[in-house]
Write the structure tokens for this entry.
Amino acid sequence: MHRSGLIVVLCLGLSGCLFAEGPWPSEGQGGFAEYLPITDRQLQDLSDRLDALRERGAPTYASAAYAEASLLLTRCRREVAAGLTVDANADIARLAQQVEALETKLGWRRPAPGGLS
Amino acid sequence: MKIVAAILALALIAMSVFPAAAQGDASLRIGDVLTIGLPGEAALNKDFPVDRKGSITLPESGAMHVAGHSLDAATVMIREALAHAYRDLDKLSVTLKERKLPLTVLGYVKTPGDVELAGDANVQTALVAAGGINQGAQLDRMTVTHADGKREQFDYKKYLDSGDPTTLPKLQPLDVIFVPASPLTGNVQIEFDGRTLASTGDGAEARSAIKIFGEVATPATFAYRKGASVIDMIMRAGGVTRYSAPEQIRILNNNKPVVFNLQAYLDTGDKSLLPEVEPGATIYVPKQVEEVRSGKLTVYVMGEVAKPGAFDARDGASFIDVIANAGGPTRYADTRQIHIIRADGKIDNVDLVKFADGSGGKLPGVKPGDAIFVPEKNDSAEQPSWLKIAPTRAVQVIGALYKPGRYEWSDEMSIFDLLSNAGGPTAHADISHIQILRKDGDRAAPVTFDLDTFLKGGGSLKDVPKIHAGYVINVPELPVDPADNKAQWMRQGPERSIYVMGQVGIPGRYAFNTGLGFLDILTAANGPTASADVRNIRVAHRGEKGSRVSRVNLSAYFATGDEKLLPKLRPGDVIFVPDQSKNYLDEPPSEVVRVLGAVGKPGRYPYSDEMSIIDLLAEAGGPTADALQDRIIVVNMSPAQTQARVFDLLAFAKTGDVRRVPVVRAGDVIYIPNHSQDEWTQVAGAIGSVISAASLASIASTLSRTTTTTGH
């Protein structure tokens, strides 16, 4: 009887400690991740490919698609930095698809991955 | 022998003596010339012509009539007369030096008048001396009037034919030859040429002359000749012409008509078929066409040929043979629609033009009894007789063309031929929606043909609809004024319209074809208005399987210039340009960021990944004075991973550390708390402390109780 009452009080106390420790969420980040270096390797690869496409004239020949992909890259970088990994993975997959489509459209295939490193 | 020789010698003597005797015997006449010789007398020794009174004029004694006397008698008379003036007349000689024939030629000769000829001259020399006969003289009825008034008629032509001098009258001095004019020369003096004159015939006497007229070479009146047959008379008139009907020659003998079948006579040679020709008969050779020809071998050609008529067609005669025999089609002939009306009533059509092109195949054969009809061409567009074109050969062209109407059709033509023949489409024609109403039996089905696209882009000619006779082709009209298209909206089918609604200059229904694009239509509608939300233009694609609406971000198009941002439109689609101040229900939460709390303008804000939380706060009017600027809360909404984060605006502003800015995406929520929330948290914090204290106290009491029980 006393033992159970003790556990209730302990739980309440511990939760109180937690509540008292911080009513605010932790500080967010990633809002300007496009100004920071890319940490994700897959994302870095896609970013390089987009840069290559830019060099090839994608902003001239497929401006809308290039702009959309660039924007999506920004979003992915932000999500990765913010730790929104599920959303980030989904968006990275979309970005990979768009970059692929752009490369096909401009008739250019990137060199084999081995050549990159 | 001696007797014979004696007779011959006598004969020779006689021949040498008698001519002189004969000369001496012949009596002197007017025109003779005597020579009176008397040596030494200058007044004599010269010629003394017998003048027109029959006298000679002697010197010293005067005129003396000698005509009618013999030369000897005249010599005695001269001697007697001269004896009064001359003494020695022993050496007087009177000789007949020459004979002359003074005549008068009158009538139809070149130079009528007196002529003096040699003594033995005949009519012919007289006519020559008068300059010859004029054209138009009647040769067989000349007359000679002798000095005694006796008149003699003779046939000079007969003399010319035979050369027999006995047919001509013996001429005496002072005879008058008269050459009459032919009655055919008429009463007016004109120049004749011999050929014309001869062709008019030689019949002089109306009573006996034979009159031939009708289809002969030279219809004329000809002199009757005994024993001449009808054939002779027709030959005299130059024969029958090619238009004559030789079976139906009519002869009027003594007012009694006889029909002579020359064809039958030539076919049989039966002389009994030749009728007599009596003096004054009339012969008429009728024209062929006046007779209805029909027969087992006859082919009839009618209409626009040079020589319509009936033709005898032997077996094996082709269509071309018959048409060529009829002189060929005239320039008015419609050679595409020649009809052959068969003997059994069946009708075949012949397209001669097609055959001449080499694309028509074989021409039909023509059998006796058939009739070929070559119709008149319907060429004049000004006054076309539309009834001439049967419905099975016509197409109807209506609508916006320069010359709509009913046109004759042939299947090798195309719709392009037809439209150009109809003057082409007008400026207001909508050639991208040409409607063709096909007829098949008693049913009709419409087809639309986009001529505009075909002309611009080309394509297989097999895709061009085939036109056949009986079809109706309509070229619709475009609305005159796009702003006024409501008045004519009935005339513009939905299949060639596009709909523009919302915030554009002139919303409405616009004529459209697939060659036009999104911007064409938007510009035609005078473009978006100032309040239009050009980022969210919606296009409803109708006429597809399922429904599809695409969103057009015109702003992005103007930022990038990428044509791929503009949708492909098809007739029937709807464009909606929304208003910027649209109902908030129209904006899905996934596309906006909701900004709540202590800001100047809380609300829902459209968001793009180019933006950041700083942009949002600026757009929402910034935090208010009592905002907890170091505790701005961002809720990242995500189906898998929703999380809340705090943004310390103050710290960011102070440090500029971009790492401390949270991520914001469309669909997220931003909440800016104020100081009252902060007090509340302080209260909550106090309560938390109380609870913590209580729990510590309870732990302490529990521990003390445990020690107490263990102490017992």
User: Anything to note?
Assistant: Residues 30-116 of chain A form one domain.
